[in-house]
Design brief:
Domain AAA+ ATPase: 59-211
Order of helices and strands: EHHEHEHEHEHEHHHHHH
Radius of gyration: 22 Å
Helix content: 40-55%
Strand order of the largest sheet: 1-3-4-5-2-6
Strand content: 5-15%
Shape: elongated
CATH superfamily of the largest domain: P-loop containing nucleotide triphosphate hydrolases
GO molecular function, one term: ATP binding
Keywords: ATP-binding, Nucleotide-binding
Number of domains: 2
CATH architecture of the largest domain: 3-Layer(aba) Sandwich
Number of strands: 6
Protein name: ATP-binding protein
CATH topology of the largest domain: Rossmann fold
Organism: Pseudonocardia yunnanensis
Structural class: alpha/beta
């Protein structure tokens, strides 16, 4: 749907599963068991949310992914929506919605609260009524559910409190009235997210920076994808010793920075830029050292 025709506060709306959404779930590399926990939690809520709502301790259908930038939180969330939609396809399709948290702050007292309330009590319920399952991504949720206890007085603290109150009330309302909605929120700064929002989470997962073995695997996969376009680079994709050497030089890097090593290497020499089949190990090592 064109952004010009989207309800206020939304970045996108998609119907899943859709073939063009395949890829992120398989390509992102995270610690063993992470994807399984995320997918199982999501399937449980989307399939049995109404029954779960009758049990003590109402589930809120809220998953929080925390961690430094570049650790794949948003990619993982998008892949989760598609993977869950594929698993639930025999029971109906899934609406996938991305919220723009930066669309709500306002200098007008009370305006942020009103806009968030409208989103949570009108827009999302209307979208959830279209299909059996709904997944909502809130990226950078620290801009949406601001920690009230540390709200800066440089902004309007009253409106910050009211806006976060509206988020919490909306989460509670949707948890009870639409038990087949799952919210996936990402944050680089969990300490900036309101405590009451975090306490409503059914699952909080912290994604750390990749270790050297994971960095080597990211490089191998990136080079394998490159070899699918330029076969002359295939020996590099198969050189595990090279991957380990590059990983040792990239310790402490986030996944996004690691993936850009290949792109940087392709631009090291003009002849390689013109013909990537000429890429050599020295280009990759130079790229790591230059980064």
């Amino acid at each position: 749907m064109s952004t010009a025709h989207l309800p206020p506060g939304l970045l996108s709306i998609h119907v899943l599963p859709a073939d063009h959404h395949d890829g992120p779930w398989d390509h992102i590399l995270v610690p063993p068991g992470t994807k399984e926990r995320l997918l199982n939690q999501t399937l449980l809520r989307l399939r049995h949310g109404r029954a779960l709502a009758t049990l003590p301790g109402l589930p809120h259908g809220l998953i929080v992914l925390a961690g430094p930038p570049g650790t794949g939180k948003t990619t993982l969330a998008r892949g989760l929506a598609q993977s869950a939609a594929r698993a639930l396809a025999p029971h109906g399709s899934t609406t996938y919605v991305e919220i723009d948290p930066h669309a709500f702050p306002s200098e007008m007292l009370g305006e942020s609260q009103r806009n968030i309330t409208r989103l949570m009590t009108d827009t999302l319920p209307e979208l959830a009524a279209r299909r059996p399952h709904t997944v909502v991504l809130i990226d950078e949720v620290e801009s949406f559910a601001v920690r009230r206890s540390t709200a800066s007085f440089g902004s309007n603290p009253v409106d910050v409190h009211r806006a976060t109150d509206a988020v919490l009330a909306g989460i509670d309302f949707l948890a009870e009235s639409h038990p087949r909605i799952v919210f996936v929120a990402t944050t680089n700064f969990p300490e900036a997210v309101d405590e009451a929002f975090l306490s409503r989470s059914d699952l909080v997962l912290t994604l750390g920076l990749p270790d050297e073995a994971t960095i080597a695997a990211i490089l191998q996969r990136s080079l394998a994808e490159l070899a699918g376009i330029w076969p002359g680079t295939r020996p590099l994709a198969e050189d595990t010793a090279l991957h380990r050497k590059l990983a040792a030089h990239s310790a402490g890097w986030d996944g996004r920075r690691v993936r850009k090593v290949v792109l940087t290497a392709l631009a090291q020499r003009p002849e390689v830029a013109l013909d990537p089949n000429l890429l050599e190990p020295a280009d990759l090592l130079a790229a790591v050292e230059a980064a």
